[in-house]
C-alpha cells in the first residue's frame, strides 16, 4: 500500500468529473439547443441578405417579431416536454393505443394474407397509372423529368450499395453514358452512328454499353475496400463528365446535343409519337420501373441476392461458403450501371437535349442521398425516399425563397440521419445492423468495413 | 459415411490412410510479400482421420489451412486432394470439392440470423438438405433454441458452434478447423471437442489447428508440430502427447 500518491489523481478529481453544473444538465442543454434553433430558424425564414449589406438582414431578423415567435414556439415545446412530458406521454400512449391497436390488428390480418397483399399492390399500381391525370401540368413535369428518372437511378444504385454493400459515388456517370448512347444512336451527336435506331431500341444497347462500362470500371477496382472504391468511382464520374465536356467532335462539348428524337412507335397499322406532353412518358417510365422492380425483387430472393448479402457481411466467410465474391460484386456493379443507363435513355428521349451540366458530380451525391434517406437495401424505402427528396425542393419553390430551397433539403437530411439513420422505410437487416451498432456488437457501417479486417 | 459429395475430382478413388491420402500438402512455400510464412511444409491427412496441427503463435498454422482451402496460393509446392492437384483453384471453387474451412475468429455473418447463416453454409448445394439442418441442430441444441437470433448477438461459444455448423451445411468431406476453442470456457471447449469427435465418427475427416494441445491430441489420431513455417515434429497423437518437448512447449512442464 505504498503507491505513489503524487501520480494518482486525488479522489476529488473524480468527484469533480462527476459533478455537473446546472447548465451542463441535459434539461438546460436542451433549452439552449432550442434557443439556438429558434435563432437559426428566424434567420432562415426572415429577411434575405443583400450583396452590398450583408449584416442588415441579420440585424433586422434579430429585431423582427419572427424571432420572438420562433422563441415562443420552441421554448414552449421545450417547457411542455420537460415539465409536462409525463402527462403528455401517457395521454398520447393511451390515445395512441386506442387508435393503433385495431389498426395493427387489421394490418396484421392484411399482411398475413396473400390476396390482400396482391390487392394492395394492384390498387397502388392503378393509383400510379392514373396519377398523372389527377395533377397539374407542373407536377406532371416534376413527376416525369425528375421523380421517374431518379427513382430508376436509385433502384439501380440500391443494388450496388444496398445489396452488395459497395459505396459508389459516381453512379450518374452510367446515367450519362445511357443518355449519350441515346443521343448517339438516334443521330443526335456530331458523330454519325452506323445506323439510326428508334429510341426504344436504344434501351437494350444502352444496357449493354453500361454493362460493359460497369465491368471495365469494376474489374480493376472491386478489390478495393469501401472508402477507396468511393473515391475511384468519383474519379470515374469526373472523367466521364470531362470527356462529355471536352470531346467536342464526338459529344458536342458544352453545348451538348439538341433536338434529339423522342420516343415513337410505328407498327405499320398503328403508330404513335411521344411529343411535349409529359403524361405518355410517365407511362413508359412506369412500365420500365415495374419491369425492373419485378426482376430485382426476384433477384433479391435468389442465390444471387443471398450471395450479395454474404459478401456485404464478410467477404472471407462468403468465399469460404462457396461464393465467388469477385464475380458477384462485378454483377452488382454491372446490373446497377445498366439500370442507370436505361434511366439515361428515357431522360434524354424526354428532354430532347442533353449537355454535360446535367451530369455533374452533385447528381451522384444526391442519388446516394436518395437511397440512404429512403433506407438502403429496401425497395419500398428507396422508392419513397427518392420521391420525397425530389418532391421537396419543388414543393418549396412556392413556399420559401428560391435560394433557400436546398437549405431545407440539407437540414432534412441532417435531422433524418441523426434521428432515423435507418431511413424512411428500412430493410429488416439494416435495422439489425443499427441496433447492434448501438449495443456495440457490430459496426453499423455496412459499406466496406469488414468485421475481420484483412481480405484475401 | 454420411457425406454424399456433389463433385469429385476426376479419377478420384476412395482410399484409406494407407492408400492415396485425402489431403496432401507437398513442400509448400507461401509468401506474404517478402515474408516467407511457410518454408516447405508437407503433411498428409488420411480419409476419416483427425489430424492436429500445433505450433506457437505465428508458426504458420493458419497459413497452412488457408493454403489448403485455396484462400492463399503457394508460390511453390502442391496441394493434392485424393492425389489430384488442387492448388491454384480459388477457395469458392474448392468448396465444391468438399473442403470446408472454419476460419480463425469464427467470422459468422453477424447480421444474419442463425438459420440464415446455416442456409448460407449450404450455398454450394443448389438447395439445402433439411437433413443437414436437423443434424446441425442435433449436434448443437443451443443453436436450435436460437435459430431466429441475430448471430452477432450470440456468445463467443455459440458463434463458434455456428461457424462449425455452417461449414457442416456444405457437406464437407474434409473440415479444416482453425482454433475452434479460442477464447472459450473450459466446459464449452470440452463440449466442442465432444461434438468434433461425433462429427468425425459420422465420417468427416478433420484437420484441426489448436493451441489447446492436450485436448487436440486426445481427439486426434496424428499430429504435426509447426515452428516458424516448417514441420519440426510429426507422430501419432499419443506419442506427441507424451513427448517431453511437446509437454514442455504446449502443456507446461509442471502439469501432470
Ligand atoms: N496477411 C499477412 N500479411 C503479412 N504477413 C502475414 C499475413 N498473415 C500472416 N502473416 C505472417 O505469417 C506468419 C504466420 O502466420 P499465421 O497466421 O499462419 O500464424 P499462426 O500459426 O496461425 O499463429 P496464431 O496461433 O497466432 O494464429 C506470421 O509471422 C504472420 O505475421
Ligand atoms: Mg492462426
Automatic annotation (TrEMBL), chain A:
GO CC term, one of those recorded: plasma membrane
Alphabetized UniProt keyword annotations: Cell membrane, Membrane, Transmembrane, Transmembrane helix
Key word Cell membrane present: yes
Record's bilayer topology term: Multi-pass membrane protein
MF terms (GO), sorted A to Z: branched-chain amino acid transmembrane transporter activity
Location (main, coarse): membrane
Annotated InterPro entries: ABC_transp_permease, LivM-like
TM spans (from-to): 28-46, 66-84, 115-135, 147-164, 171-188, 200-219, 226-244, 280-299, 360-393, 405-421
Coiled-coil positions: none
Cellular localization per UniProt: Cell membrane
Cell inner membrane among keywords: no
Name of this protein: Branched-chain amino acid ABC transporter permease
Organism field: Streptomyces hainanensis
Amino acid at each position: 500500500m505504498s503507491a505513489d500518491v503524487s501520480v494518482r489523481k486525488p479522489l476529488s478529481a473524480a468527484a469533480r468529473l462527476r459533478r455537473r453544473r446546472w447548465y451542463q444538465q441535459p434539461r438546460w442543454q436542451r433549452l439552449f439547443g432550442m434557443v439556438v434553433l429558434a435563432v437559426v430558424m428566424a434567420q432562415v425564414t426572415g429577411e434575405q441578405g443583400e450583396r452590398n449589406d450583408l449584416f442588415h438582414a441579420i440585424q433586422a431578423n434579430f429585431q423582427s417579431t419572427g424571432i420572438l415567435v420562433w422563441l415562443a414556439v420552441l421554448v414552449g415545446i421545450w417547457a411542455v416536454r420537460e415539465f409536462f412530458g409525463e402527462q403528455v406521454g401517457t395521454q398520447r400512449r393511451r390515445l395512441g393505443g386506442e387508435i393503433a391497436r385495431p389498426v395493427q390488428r387489421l394490418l396484421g390480418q392484411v399482411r398475413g394474407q396473400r390476396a390482400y397483399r396482391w390487392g394492395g399492390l394492384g390498387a397502388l399500381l392503378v393509383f400510379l397509372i392514373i396519377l398523372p391525370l389527377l395533377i397539374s401540368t407542373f407536377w406532371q413535369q416534376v413527376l416525369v423529368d425528375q421523380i421517374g428518372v431518379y427513382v430508376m437511378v436509385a433502384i439501380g444504385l440500391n443494388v450496388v450499395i444496398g445489396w452488395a454493400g459497395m459505396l459508389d459515388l459516381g453512379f450518374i456517370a452510367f446515367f450519362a453514358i445511357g443518355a449519350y448512347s441515346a443521343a448517339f444512336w438516334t443521330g443526335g451527336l456530331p458523330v454519325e452512328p452506323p445506323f439510326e435506331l428508334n429510341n426504344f431500341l436504344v434501351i437494350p444497347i444502352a444496357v449493354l454499353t453500361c454493362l460493359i462500362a460497369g465491368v471495365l470500371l469494376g474489374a480493376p477496382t472491386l478489390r478495393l475496400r469501401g472508402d477507396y472504391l468511393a473515391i475511384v468511382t468519383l474519379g470515374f464520374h469526373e472523367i466521364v463528365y470531362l470527356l462529355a465536356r471536352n470531346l467536342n467532335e464526338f459529344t458536342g462539348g458544352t453545348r451538348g446535343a439538341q433536338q434529339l428524337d423522342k420516343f415513337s412507335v410505328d407498327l405499320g397499322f398503328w403508330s404513335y409519337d411521344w411529343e411535349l406532353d409529359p403524361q405518355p412518358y410517365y407511362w413508359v417510365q412506369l412500365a420500365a420501373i415495374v419491369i425492373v422492380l419485378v426482376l430485382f425483387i426476384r433477384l433479391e430472393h435468389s442465390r444471387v441476392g443471398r450471395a450479395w448479402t454474404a459478401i456485404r457481411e464478410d467477404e472471407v466467410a462468403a468465399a469460404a461458403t462457396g461464393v465467388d465474391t469477385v464475380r458477384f460484386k462485378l454483377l452488382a456493379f454491372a446490373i446497377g450501371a445498366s439500370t442507370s443507363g436505361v434511366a439515361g435513355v428515357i431522360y434524354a428521349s424526354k428532354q430532347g437535349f442533353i449537355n454535360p451540366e446535367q451530369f455533374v458530380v452533385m447528381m451522384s451525391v444526391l442519388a446516394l442521398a436518395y437511397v440512404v434517406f429512403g433506407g438502403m437495401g429496401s425497395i419500398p424505402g428507396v422508392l419513397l425516399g427518392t420521391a420525397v427528396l425530389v418532391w421537396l425542393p419543388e414543393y418549396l419553390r412556392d413556399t420559401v425563397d428560391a435560394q433557400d430551397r436546398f437549405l431545407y433539403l440539407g437540414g432534412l437530411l441532417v435531422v433524418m440521419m441523426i434521428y432515423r439513420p435507418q431511413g424512411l422505410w428500412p430493410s429488416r437487416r439494416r435495422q439489425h445492423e443499427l441496433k447492434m451498432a448501438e449495443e456495440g456488437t457490430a459496426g453499423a457501417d455496412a459499406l466496406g468495413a469488414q468485421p475481420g479486417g484483412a481480405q484475401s | 459415411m454420411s457425406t454424399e459429395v456433389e463433385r469429385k475430382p476426376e479419377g478420384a478413388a476412395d482410399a484409406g490412410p494407407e492408400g492415396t491420402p485425402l489431403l496432401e500438402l507437398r513442400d509448400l512455400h507461401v509468401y506474404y510479400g517478402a515474408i516467407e510464412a511457410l518454408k516447405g511444409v508437407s503433411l498428409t491427412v488420411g480419409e476419416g482421420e483427425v489430424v492436429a496441427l500445433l505450433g506457437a503463435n505465428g508458426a504458420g498454422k493458419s497459413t497452412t489451412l488457408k493454403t489448403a482451402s485455396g484462400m492463399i496460393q503457394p508460390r511453390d509446392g502442391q496441394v493434392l486432394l485424393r492425389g489430384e492437384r488442387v492448388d491454384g483453384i480459388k477457395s469458392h471453387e474448392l468448396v465444391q470439392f468438399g473442403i470446408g474451412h472454419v476460419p480463425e475468429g469464427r467470422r459468422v455473418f453477424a447480421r444474419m440470423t442463425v438459420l440464415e447463416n446455416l442456409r448460407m453454409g449450404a450455398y454450394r448445394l443448389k438447395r439445402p438438405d433439411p437433413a443437414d439442418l436437423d443434424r446441425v441442430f442435433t449436434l448443437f441444441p443451443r443453436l436450435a433454441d436460437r435459430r431466429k437470433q441475430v448471430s452477432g448477438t450470440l456468445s463467443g461459444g455459440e458463434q463458434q458452434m455456428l461457424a462449425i455448423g455452417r461449414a457442416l451445411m456444405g457437406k464437407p468431406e474434409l473440415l479444416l478447423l482453425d482454433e475452434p476453442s479460442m477464447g472459450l470456457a473450459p466446459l464449452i471447449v470440452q463440449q466442442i471437442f465432444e461434438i468434433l469427435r461425433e462429427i468425425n465418427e459420422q465420417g468427416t475427416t478433420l484437420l484441426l489447428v489448436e493451441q489447446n494441445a492436450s485436448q487436440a491430441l486426445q481427439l486426434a489420431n496424428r499430429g504435426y508440430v509447426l515452428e516458424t513455417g516448417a514441420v519440426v515434429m510429426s507422430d501419432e497423437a499419443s506419442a506427441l502427447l507424451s513427448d517431453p518437448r511437446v509437454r514442455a512447449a504446449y502443456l507446461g512442464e509442471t502439469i501432470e
